[in-house]
Design goal:
CATH architecture of chain B: 2-Layer Sandwich
Order of helices and strands of chain B: HEEHEEEEH
Largest sheet of chain B: 6 strands, antiparallel
Radius of gyration of chain B: 22 Å
Order of helices and strands of chain A: HH
Helix content of chain A: 40-55%
Strand content of chain A: under 5%
Oligomer: heterodimer
Radius of gyration of chain A: 14 Å
Shape of chain B: globular
Number of strands of chain B: 6
Number of helices of chain A: 2
Helix content of chain B: 25-40%
Number of domains of chain B: 1
CATH class of chain B: Alpha Beta
């Protein structure tokens, strides 16, 4: 399956492989600790954000957060 | 099929031959919330069957439509909820779909899908005709959607079988090599 940004398809494939494995083998079995795909996701995300801006796609109400685990950020 | 199988397949639904118009899927955001649920926001790019002559005149950017999808997977309660809405042509029509996958309450190897769609056509006098047309399309798409997941599940099972077969092959040849060395 391709990405919206042609240049991002390869990064997407690498991330998808990692995510699909984690999802089926860990997450669905109750083990959501650890995020083995974080780095891949970041690289893929940067590419997708750029493509979305270039193609002027109207994504609403979404901050590109990256692979956080719902940790609250405390700023002092 | 069991809920885990259906959920895994739903995450990998595209591409499939029942939805040839979906040409791109991207993850915009994904995170596990404090209660352990996985949220994914995805962008689906669709390309409808516009004649290539028209496409070459107006460019593919103008024939591409987009759908935004938010899914939540709860591995403890075993529910998967998907909500999607179009983000193209919102001035003309809005299609909001909601799908929920849960294990069958009495048959644990089956999954129940509930699906609903709200369609509204804006500012067009043929609105009730168009809404009826879209309702039929969405209901036949719902059937296609189930067929699509069956297709994905078959492919996933074939992948697993292939992997197992090659693992058995590797084990046999390393056992044969070990036996040879021992002699």
């Amino acid at each position: 399956m391709n990405s919206v940004g042609e240049a991002c398809t390869e990064l997407k494939r690498e991330y998808d492989l990692c995510f699909n494995r984690w999802f089926a083998e860990k997450f669905l079995k109750g083990d959501s600790a650890g995020d083995p795909c974080g780095q891949l996701f970041k690289r893929y995300q940067l590419c997708v954000q750029k493509a979305i801006k270039e193609k002027d796609i109207p994504i609403e109400g979404l901050e590109f957060m990256g692979p956080s685990k719902g940790k609250t950020e405390n700023s002092s | 099929h069991p809920w885990e199988t259906v959920t895994t397949a739903a995450m990998r639904k595209y591409p499939n031959p029942m939805n040839p118009s979906v040409v791109g899927v991207d993850v915009l955001d994904r995170h596990v919330d404090p209660s352990g649920k996985l949220h994914s926001h995805r962008l689906l790019s669709t390309e409808w069957g516009i004649p290539s002559l028209v496409k070459s005149l107006i460019g593919t950017c103008r024939t591409r439509t987009y759908v935004q999808e938010h899914s939540v997977v709860d591995p403890v309660e075993k529910t998967m909820e998907l909500k999607s809405c179009n983000i193209s042509f919102t001035n003309l029509v809005s299609v909001d779909e909601r799908l929920v996958y849960k294990p069958h309450p009495h048959e644990p190897h089956k999954t129940i899908l509930t699906q609903e769609a709200i369609i509204s056509v804006k500012g067009v006098s043929l609105s009730s005709y168009l809404e009826g047309l879209m309702a039929n399309t969405i209901s036949s798409n719902a059937k296609k959607g189930r067929e699509a997941l069956e297709w994905v599940i078959k492919r996933l099972n074939a992948e697993i079988e292939e992997f197992a077969a090659s693992a058995r092959g590797t084990m046999r040849s390393s056992m044969a090599a070990a036996a040879f060395v021992e002699k």
